[in-house]
Design brief:
Strand content: 15-25%
Function: Converts 2,5-diamino-6-(ribosylamino)-4(3h)-pyrimidinone 5'-phosphate into 5-amino-6-(ribosylamino)-2,4(1h,3h)-pyrimidinedione 5'-phosphate.
Number of strands: 13
InterPro entries: APOBEC/CMP_deaminase_Zn-bd (IPR016192), CMP_dCMP_dom (IPR002125), Cytidine_deaminase-like (IPR016193), DHFR-like_dom_sf (IPR024072), Eubact_RibD (IPR004794), RibDG_C (IPR002734), Riboflavin_Biosynth_HTPR (IPR050765)
EC number: 3.5.4.26, 1.1.1.193
CATH superfamily of the largest domain: Dihydrofolate Reductase, subunit A
Helix content: 25-40%
Structural class: alpha/beta
Bound molecules: NADP nicotinamide-adenine-dinucleotide phosphate
Distance between the termini: 3 Å
CATH architecture of the largest domain: 3-Layer(aba) Sandwich
Pfam families: dCMP_cyt_deam_1, RibD_C
Strand order of the largest sheet: 9-8-7-10-6-11-13-12
Radius of gyration: 21 Å
CATH topology of the largest domain: Dihydrofolate Reductase, subunit A
Order of helices and strands: HHHEEHEHEHEHHEHEHEEHEHEEE
Shape: elongated
Catalytic activity: 5-amino-6-(5-phospho-D-ribitylamino)uracil + NADP(+) = 5-amino-6-(5-phospho-D-ribosylamino)uracil + NADPH + H(+); 2,5-diamino-6-hydroxy-4-(5-phosphoribosylamino)-pyrimidine + H2O + H(+) = 5-amino-6-(5-phospho-D-ribosylamino)uracil + NH4(+)
């Protein structure tokens, strides 16, 4: 796994609980259509667990990837588990090896991202696996950066049996999504979250919008925030709702780690008394002219995963520009009949031009429903070309 952003940027030509990605996604099975290197069932179970472990550290590892690792003893039983520590701390494999101890010898390491072969703030994970006497390594996603690449080759050269590409798509769409988007597109991954009534209203005609959804959905919002590096709203939401945008527990206490709060306020309309400006969490007041400009600004601050919390005008701007990677819609079984729609003007005049999304999953949240979707077709000029990463790998 890679080292810090600074390490990575120095040397590299450079997309699930607790942060951004629902817990059930990571632990869910692999999509039926996914072709994958085939591994025995106990290794596949370990890989599902590794994906789950990775989600538990989302929001704490950026700019490094959130990786999960499981070490199986030679008899195939679980000997140790680990996930990436905050930057500068041990990588997932090293933590899993430490917990496995001597039981790692002759065993198998199952990891969501190819072990690194470079020395950053920590030593190469490939060497740690060799030193522990691991005999087989099962990897989901090959390391995409030059800086940290070569781990699989180094392991193979030392006689270790290495399989790469196991359930790769599930891992790529899980906890690694934010980091991979950074490597490929030099921008953070964007999760657009919105709470709406059955008729798609995000607020009533009088502007009141509190408690559109119930306590379970609201608790999920705090979990989504915790899994992101930044939470973004437009000036309209900041002025109308005066949200605090912090991560709080069920008793309303602020979490220890808070994502960056961001308000895009190009005309400096936010009053000094706004709750977003309290000292509960860091806040960025951005004057970015476009969503792309904002994402560039956030990427430079090591943000790899953004929760876009509105409102309809800013969400429409992101959607028009093809800059929403995932949508999380909390739908309340209520009707308002009037009030702002969940998204503003997308510049679409005919049904044939509708922005299409595919449903990734549906989850009941108390009396509400969570729908997680991915845009499958974009309006506007958003480009999603790949490219060399600028940030280091695992
Ligand atoms: N239920 C929900 O989940 C939810 C969530 C959020 C909001 N809401 C509701 O939404 C309503 C507010 O709607 P809104 O559309 O005014 O909020 P908004 O999208 O948060 O804010 C719109 C403002 O953002 C600024 N902005 C910054 N960058 C922009 C860009 N690239 N493109 C367009 N605008 C940009 C603009 O102000 P400047 O030009 O001054 O920068 C614009 O007027 C409230 O009633 C609120 O309760 C509901």
């Amino acid at each position: 796994m890679t080292g810090t952003a600074a390490e990575a940027r120095a040397s590299v030509p450079a997309h699930e609980s607790s942060a951004g990605v629902p817990a059930h996604e990571s632990s869910a099975g692999v999509p039926a259509h996914e072709s994958s290197a085939s591994v025995p069932a106990h290794e596949s179970s370990a890989m599902a667990r590794a994906r789950e472990l990775a989600t538990t550290v989302l929001g704490t590892t950026s700019p490094n990837p959130a990786v999960g690792a499981v070490v199986l003893a030679a008899d195939g039983t679980v000997a140790g588990e680990g996930a990436t520590a905050p930057p500068g701390g041990p990588h997932a494999e090293v933590r899993a090896l430490a917990r496995a101890g001597e039981r790692a010898r002759g065993g198998t390491a199952v990891v969501t991202l190819e072990p690194c072969a470079h020395t950053g703030r920590t030593g190469p994970c490939a060497d740690a696996l060799l030193a522990a006497g691991i005999a087989r390594v099962v990897v989901a996603v090959p390391e995409p950066t030059e800086l940290a690449g070569g781990g699989a080759d180094r392991l193979r050269a030392a006689g270790v049996d290495v399989v790469v590409g196991v359930e790769q798509e599930a891992a790529e769409r899980g906890a690694l999504a934010g980091w991979l988007t950074g490597v490929r597109e030099q921008r953070p991954y964007v999760v657009w979250k919105v709470a709406a009534t059955l008729d798609g209203r995000v607020a009533a005609a009088d502007g009141s919008s509190r408690w559109v959804t119930g306590p379970e959905a609201r608790a999920e919002v705090h979990r989504l925030r915790a899994g992101c590096d930044a939470v973004v709203v437009g000036a309209g939401t900041a002025l109308t709702d005066d949200p605090q945008l912090t991560v709080r527990d069920a008793d309303g206490r602020d979490a220890d780690r808070q994502p960056l709060r961001v308000v895009v306020d190009r005309r400096d309309r936010l009053p000094a008394t706004a709750r977003m400006l309290d000292d509960a969490a860091p806040t960025l007041v951005s004057h970015a002219a476009t969503p792309a400009e904002l994402l560039t600004e956030l990427f430079a601050r090591d943000v790899r995963r953004v929760l876009l919390e509105g409102g309809p005008t800013l969400a429409a701007a992101f959607l028009r520009d093809g800059l929403v990677d995932e949508a999380v819609v909390h739908l309340a079984p209520k009707l308002l009949g009037a009030g702002p729609s969940l998204v503003g003007d997308l510049g679409i005049s005919g049904i044939g031009s509708a922005l299409s999304l595919s449903v990734a999953d549906l989850t009941p949240l108390g009396g509400d429903v969570q729908i997680r979707l991915r845009p499958t077709r974009h309006t506007g000029g958003g480009t999603r070309t790949g490219g060399d990463g600028t940030d280091g790998g695992s």
